[in-house]
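Same chain as my last thread, 1909 residues:
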Amino acid sequence: MDWLISCVHKDLGIDKEQLFAGDRWELVAFVSLKWLATLKEKKTLTNCPKPDGLSKTEIRTFLQRSVQKLPSGWTRVSICGLRKNRLSYKLTCKPGLHGDISNDCESFCKFMQRVGTQNYRNLWGKAHEKYVQPYHGTFEKESVQALKLIKSALQKVYGCPFIWLVSEAHGLSPAKDCITATPCEPPCPNILRADALLETDEMIYVVQPYAQYSLHDIVTYSPAKLANSYAKVLFILFQVLQAMRACHQAGLSCGTLTLHNIIVDEKLCSQLRINLTDYERLETEESFCQGDQRDTGVAEIKTDERLCAKCQAELKMLVVDWVYGRISNFHYLMELNRLAGRRAGDPNYHPVLPWVVDFTVKNGKFRDLKKSKFRLNKGDKQLDFTYEMTKQAFAAGGGSVEHFHVPHHISDVLSDITYYVYTARKTPKSVLCSHVRSQWEPNEYPATMERMQSWTPDECIPEFYMDTDIFKSIHPDMPDLDIPPWCSSYEDFISTHCMLLESKEVSQDLHHWIDLTFGYKLTGKEAVKDKNVCLHLVDNHTNLTSFGVVQLFSQPHPQRLAGYSCRAPDGPSAAESSFQSLQCCKNTFSGVHLNPLTDSLNELVTETAVFEDGCVSSKAGFVEDDLEQATEALDSISITGMPAEQTPTALSSQASAFTAFTGESRSTTIRSSRRIKIGIQEQGDVDDLKLFLPDGFNPLQALEELEKMNSFLVKDIHAEVQQIRQPCQQSRLLLSELLQRDMQAFGVLIVEISFASKLRTLKPEATLLDRYLTVRKLCSGHMREIPLPLQHVVEVLLQLHKDQKCLLQKYCPLSSVQLFEYEHIFEGLPPPSPEQMLSPYCSIIPFPPYFLSLYRFIVTYQQKTTEGDAQGREVVAFLWQQLKSILYEITPEGQEILLPFILSLMSDESTAVYAAWYLFEPIAQALGPKNTNKYLLKPLVGLYEHPGYLPGRFYLYTDCFVAQLIMRLGLQAFLTNLLGHILQVIIGFESTTEEGKALVGSADDEESVGGSPVSGSFGSDIKNDVKHSSSTLELLDYSSGVSFSEQEYMTDGEDFQNGIYVSGSVQQQDQESVSVGKLSDRSSASEVSLGEDRLTDGDSGKERSSLKSVDSSQDMKHSENSSHGGEETDEDDDTATVRTDLTLSVNTDASMDTVTANADGTVDEEEDELHEDCEDKEQKILLDSACKMVQWLAAKLGPTVTSRYIARNLLRLLTLCYIGPDKQQFIIGGEEINLHNVGNIYDKRPVVGDQVSEPVLDCLMYVAYLYGEPVLTYQYLPYISYLVAPTNSIRLNSRKEAGLLAAVTLTQKIIVYLSDTTLMDILPKINQDVLLPVLDILTTPKLGFPNGFQGRTALCVKTISLMALVCLRIGREMVQQHMTETLDQFFRVFSVLHCLREEVTKLNASNSSENGGAGDSVFVEISSPDGVTHTCDLSALEELEKVFNPEMAYSSYIPFSCLIGDSVMRKIVPEHELVWKLATLFQNSTTQKTLESVHQQLPSYILEPENGRSFRAFSNSFGSDNQSGTFGSVLVGNRIQVPQDSRSAGSRATHVKQRINSFIGSTNQDDHALKQELPKSSRMLCGNWLAYWQYEIGLSQQDYHFHFHQIKLQSFVGHTGATKCLTAVSGEDFFLSASKDKTVRLWPLYNYGDGMKEIEPRYTYTEHRKSVFFVSHLETLQQVVSCDGTVHLWDRFTGKTVQTYDAFDGKSPITALSTMAAPHTSIIVGSADSVLRFIDPRKPGLQHEFKLANTMAGLVRYLTVSPNGRTISIGFSSGVIVLMDTRTGLIMRGWQAHEGDVLQMKAADGIIVSSSSDHSLTVWKEMEQKPLRQYRSTSDPIHAFDLYGNEIVTGTVANKIGLYSMSDGPNSPISTNKLSTENFRGTLTCLNVLPTKRLLLLGSENGVVRLLA
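reply #2:
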């Protein structure tokens, strides 16, 4: 690549330091964005600037593949260069034998016609070549110079012309031979685009964007992204074929494709990077073909040598050479790093070598190579702890937790931090600060090699074995890295370190380290055993990455053998004497072979070790002198230069022969030392000589080692390449042959995807022939490992059915382009081509039918999202139209491909809202509830967290969209995970702020600890909310990939729908537009589109708005409300009126200057631009929509769910309205706090938080209106008491301070709506639980407020106003009786401050001189004159002095004296004289002019003195009634009359006030009213409903048990026959009942009356002819399925029959029926002949028909389907249960479950519950023989039951309701209740549990259905 770097530097002006040789002839350049933009847009080339401020090291780092973050203004490009002198050969453009079949076939007939035509052309051309050309010579074909052909094809493929670069100066000049640029079709999106095509005199350059990831990265580092899904692999191949087709149509060959050529992104969008370098190789082959034929033999020899050198025998010889010591350890390990893809200089993927010693002593102590460095550093205990903790977290999360919770030991082999610590001395400071530590601390880096080795948990890098620069520091404040003292220099250390790496101690165990780092100990049981489970290999990550841990070997690596020797050719003869025997032995063992490199493989054996005392003599005939001489002779055998202390004394340790390599020189040193004692019997008994081997000696060790190595080579290094020898034949190069070679490379590519783990040892530069031969052998032995859909195409493309030798017979590497020639007709088709394989009528690759529409959707997505001027709504609407055809036939595997694009649309700011509005409903319908929650919940939460930045955001808060959320997510999931985020828009902030985090429970406040004083602790509820919210906040990000493998769908009870009922009177078009909630073409145009028209970039202020969308959403709500109340009596007329008022969209101010829609639904383009206050008006529309949605939701959910979720969240929101100093500022411009307004202490003195809280109070009061006064007294007041409860901390936090303000504000609101009787009843509680605790905190000197004087003042003013309101409500007499303690505590603070003023002044002075720190809390003990000691915080005392000043005394004491009289005040306030003096002091400080202005407004009786005091100038305006106080109200006993005038503080308050008036039914009520009546509602709680509601709100949300108390709530009367079946639908606000009277009825589940009222059905379906025994709701299609022997499918909104299915066999009636949970749409029918039939209402006919084998089991009694839809359980009349796979129809299991008839069955996740007439109730696991739990009823069989979580609610004919547990527990029911005749009459026939509302529906034989709690 050096030649290309030089050319690019010369021609393009890019500095060589900015160039880097990438993978496979790719040159990566680090260039400026301006330079690239100039080249692309202006077609002008300038010198590329150098990056200022970046060192060479930094630039090299930015060029590494694993680095993604680049400096601003810089990018990377890929440059491919072709040399013109190598493109001078000719290419013949002959119509080849590849099939030219268009993919745009109109029909199958046209496709077959094209096939026939192509086959005819191919056969004719072959016959002409065989029979005509030999006699008439070669016909001149159209031959074109390769250069010209390539340039023309490149311009067509990339859609851009060539830019001619003049050699003298860079500039733009037309090329002489360049084809004139003509308008062409847009380039194929699956071909990697070209930024520019450049041409010089010598070169052609293609500049392309840098591709971060390739298909090789996926199969190597992220294989889980393609796991468990054939569709993903098929779709990648589908896109590759699209690119290949585009190239072939342009006449361009794609080259020998590899995995590196397929560029992919996170969404699996694939692009082909054309391999142009193959055209240069053709020139070399052409030159060989044109040479002398006499060189053919030489060419054959060279070919064979090249084939052998390039095949995998290279790796085999590499392993063999290392095992036998022919290459060094260093060289071998570096080769393994290269095969693993590790790249030198890449901080994330640098090569690794082992640390071999610890450098503590001379030559170091050798480490244990059998353990990883991570294990040695962390210790076994720490690794076990990590593994167990992550294992527990993984198990607790059900396998769906974050990837770092997957059980593992090791996180990485070499991290980037460790790499930069290693290389810190030569790495720039800026790089170290960005990767290691942000703050430069040079002393924190290891200073010595000993410290470095002991500190790091990672392995070593090669630089410590070869580069001395790594020790030398470039930083002045960082010293050089110290080496051990036993090394004299860095060079000495490098040399010693290398010798240690090559030593015997390392070599004998190095294979263990290889197994841990590259081998089989990375996965499986061995990894767990050796504590080597690496996170990257087990986390199944789907995000793309270009680095990771790669496993090269799956078998144990062979051990490096010790020094070996060769025996002499002649064996030793029997010894005639002792000396001869010893001499023979000596000769034998001294025959050491010193040149092992020349041995053949078969001659190598391991060295045999013989121990001392290996032979024992039985007789003492041996001459000891001779023995000693022989022993000395053996001992004298030593190695020259070997120290004596290193010679082993025992031969048990095998002699080692290690090689130290320096450059190319090699020295072999073999050491050997042996001692032998041989015992020989008497001289004549030579034949009886015995050789005794030492203990532990294995004579077969050499053979075993050889066998292990051969096994490793065979199993891990696949395929011995068969050498092909064929003479080269001269032939012309045909373009058709190049295209056929592309198809052969494509076939090899498919196999390489499947066998990626087996081909990692194949070199990247391997030729196509090497790759083909390797994959062919793999296919021969492992064909089943290739995915089934790809086996046929592999066989066709690679011709696996033919013999390899015959197939490659004509191949010559120097002349042949393609490996082999395809048959002209194979299986009736022409040779394979991209067009042929993409045809929907060709089955070579079975692409799913939805692939083409999915591909078009993705192409449209890419085009629309890259267009800068495309509007978000236009993009989504266009994609929505295409989505319809995809979802109709898409499979779950296809959904995995589609879903990342939907998630991307829902995450982008410009399309997020519109994607949710248009796409959520169809996508969620296809996904089902469980996958919808898993994948779509996070982007939905993101939408609601940041609504202020999204155009059209008010769509998210319409009730129709919220209804879709409830229907598709499930009611419980919506309430738990999403409702809190939706409600926060009411106070106008996003949850990313501190306040928003507090809403979901993450704030540190008192609410997170402690509990409420009432039952149903708010503290526990909040903790539970924190639990749920945390799960929401930790939602996983699936933008990198989606996998449905091993996923299950929700149960029927967890999947809900919107429940919007449209009566028959509503027109059809209205039903279509509002019932489903999705936009039609008509409604799309009429809906509001804020920011869709004329929207400039980044200018949301010019968005157009319309009232039409709000009206349309309200039309739907109004239609629902009218349907709910349409059948009510006249007593509910007031309710209907109020609900009609609620449909007002916005107030008059907000509706001005808006854009209205024309009659045809189009927006008038000639409307004026919005005014500058468009954002405010848009916010008002958003607020109005949100408030109305909350009100609609409160009415829909019912009292208990509304109180548990909506009201509680609103109460928490109320606190957030007052957090922060800006929320506690008094409003300027409203009613200012001055002397003029001081007299009226109940007049509004709003703070900013009051305006923010108005919508929250509005919604809270609406809930109180809807369900009555108990909501105020039983829920709101206890929560207020909880907020104001005393705190144990020494200082309030912001949450507590805001909670106090919110509590006082809400209390004031509540008192206004309380009746006189209720107020007097709870007044003591208000005093004790609200007012007194507030006053304690307000007046205490111990606690300071976070916002200081400002917060305390705001609370003081609000508290005074609250006390005044209470006094006004109860009257003067009651004040003296009930408010004495409260008023006394308030005014007492003035006297306390007065008494302590002097002490406070002294202490403040001393504290200031000593501490001087503002804001420090200093606590002191101060004694008052009365002897009471006060513990005070000096800062709190300062606040009190500022708040309770003379002005506050004047503002509070005088009005209260006017209200209740001075004499009463004297009795109530003992320190009245002091307060009076303070008030007088403030009076004297005011001007006379101001006082006179006040005098003129005071009534005359106030100006008269009372008890010697004049109250002139102390009051504000009064009413004309002299019986009133100073608060603008008229007191008549306990009744208060309020004047009509009204004022507001700002437009927002006016808007909120109108909204309040809309639901209280009065437009003239004053916002300052002292009393308002709550209008009576038909939904008001009373009687049993009230008792049930009180009990439910007292329960903690962490209580997951079902409680049954026999509280009768509702009766549903209408059936005349026995009720057979009950099922709840629509978020539990409706239910269906099937009866013996041949009808199915739809009933509402709203609360009415006191529990005694009888409810009539909303709709009755009367099309059945027999008794109806089954009814269910098909969630996906939103249709009802009922059966009376004939299956009826009908629409519950209109009541119209959609379809009917009669009994399929007249002789076998239908006996059982079941439906599959969403997203499935199947209906399963069981008949008397034991046949199961599957019906899909969307398709005609039957879907499946399965015959049950066991027909002796009796009749099919009951069917139940598992929540995931994979299994169905069939219960028979004989008690047999059969478990069947719904996908294959195979019976998985059948067993005798009961002795009697199966009465009912239910299925949960992996659980089956069945009841029988034998009185048993049994819980089964699907695949276990024994029951999990078994219960037996003593009296009656359980004929009806339902599941509630982990509990079973049962019913018997004796009217007994039982509760059983499916988990561990007693064998008896948890509880049993006998239904009383007062609550239930008749015999129980069926039941159904409402899980969210915790209610029970009971059906009886008399037809009455009752709702009980």
